[in-house]
Amino acid sequence: MANFSKSNVPQFSVEVYQNAFLPEGGREVNAIVTVTSTGGGTTGGIPLPGATASPGHVPGYVPGYGPGPGQATSAAVVLMVDCSGSMDYPPTKMRNARDATSAAIDTLREGTRFSVVAGTHVAKDVYPGNGQLAVADAQTKAQAKEALRRLSAGGGTAIGTWLRLADRLLGAADVDIRHGILLTDGRNEHEAPEDLRAALDSCAGRFTCDARGVGTDWEVKEVTSIASALLGTADIVADPSGLAADFTQMMENAMGKEVADVALRLWTPVGVEIRFVKQVAPTVEDLTGRRTEAGPRAGDYPTGSWGDESRDYHVCVLVPEAGIGQEMLAARVSLILPDPSGAGAPQVLSQGLVRAVWTDDMVASTSINPQVAHYTGQAELAQVIQQGLDARKSGDFDGATAKLGRAVQLASASGNQDTAKLLSKVVDVVDAATGTVRLKAKVAEADEMTLETRSTKTVRVKK
């Protein structure tokens, strides 16, 4: 385990959990990499360029990253509110959306840049307007909430246009953290799927975004794809009255972020193949296809913004065959922060090693590391829930029963009680241990959508 232990900055640590032993001829190496960021807070951090504090008096000063001592991390947030015609059905939905956005604005830290975008088949920055961002203080918060009161529902839904406007607004801000919050109540019917995909591709890596679906008339895969592409969270707020609490929590989380653009760098020796790199906690997110090359035999996988938190990643590689008694470095995992100027070398925040050792001890080589076993099960849990729900929608009830039964079995075995409760609203559980279930004849649409939206949420392994 290595640490990035500069004072006044978030400290990153990397811990590697694996069974390094392979049998003769064995090639697959699995490791769970736990990344933890602690001690940043909003009162410390690494000084911004041009900060008035003298770097000579700050131990561990790293030029160009984050805020200075006693300064908060600079951030910009764009709140995208669905104002399409369906937000008027029922009329309380629009009112709750306005109230929720007001609550989020109240949660903004003083000095945060922000904007409110009204989203229909076009996007309009309704506050402060003219392509600008406001600076949060008592006056601008009051003005933003007054602008919200004037919002009304009407028009279609083209979410790609909302995201592109948010990107333009956030891109103009000289800040550490760029974040979006997006609320929709309907399907993205007024632009082609490829237009939304192109917008997500354009915005990826430029800002993070949390997405929420309110009610039950929106498309789960659309909302979750937005959060996935932009490294944010996705959830359902089935009852619009719950929006204010959810928006407040989302904004509090956004205000707690201290370091942006952290990458997980994987270096592998000659002959080693990468099978996959996945985030497995707090949610399952396959990062394998998001690799960007970072020099010989090294690639970076995006992780987004960090506050005080811990996440787990599953790294799987194939090593060349070797004889009994031989040992090799299978991979080196590093946390990387790029030089914000683009001119210097990236900062290595922390580092861990993945090893491979060949042995003729069958007990050692066949033992499965508990962390690896746990998260392999959690990834399968997310997959079989999606497969089971898709089968149910297509009328394949036998297939749905088998997949959702397996999901119940996995949730029970791993102690994932939240997912088990959601599953129990879609199936009647006969025996959780064996995965014996019956599909419920009637399932509330909100219950099915909640299970689908939250299917990738995992429970942490007990270490």
Chart the SSEs and their pairings.
Layout: E1 2-4, E2 11-17, E3 21-22, E4 28-38, E5 75-82, H1 91-107, E6 113-119, E7 123-127, E8 134-135, H2 138-149, H3 159-171, E9 177-184, H4 193-203, E10 208-214, H5 220-229, E11 234-237, H6 243-255, E12 259-267, E13 273-281, E14 285-286, E15 292-293, E16 298-306, E17 309-318, E18 327-337, E19 347-358, H7 362-366, H8 370-394, H9 397-414, H10 417-423, E20 427-431, E21 436-439, H11 445-453
Parallel strand pairs: 3-19, 5-6, 5-9, 9-10, 10-11
Antiparallel strand pairs: 1-2, 2-4, 4-17, 6-7, 6-8, 12-16, 12-18, 13-14, 13-17, 15-16, 18-19, 20-21
Tags for this model:
463 residues; 6-stranded antiparallel beta sheet; 30% helix
Q: What would the principal axes of the Cα set say about the shape? A: globular
Which structural class best describes the helix and strand composition?
alpha+beta
Terminal-residue CA separation? 15 Å
What is the average per-residue confidence, as pLDDT, rounded to a whole number?
Answer: 90
Q: Roughly what fraction of the amino acids lie in strands?
A: 25-35%
The count of DSSP E runs of length 2 or more, i.e. the number of strands, is 21
How many helices? The count is 11
Radius of gyration of CA atoms, rounded to a whole number: 24 Å
Uncertain residue segments? 1-8, 41-70
Largest sheet: 7 strands, mixed
Overall helicity: 25-40%
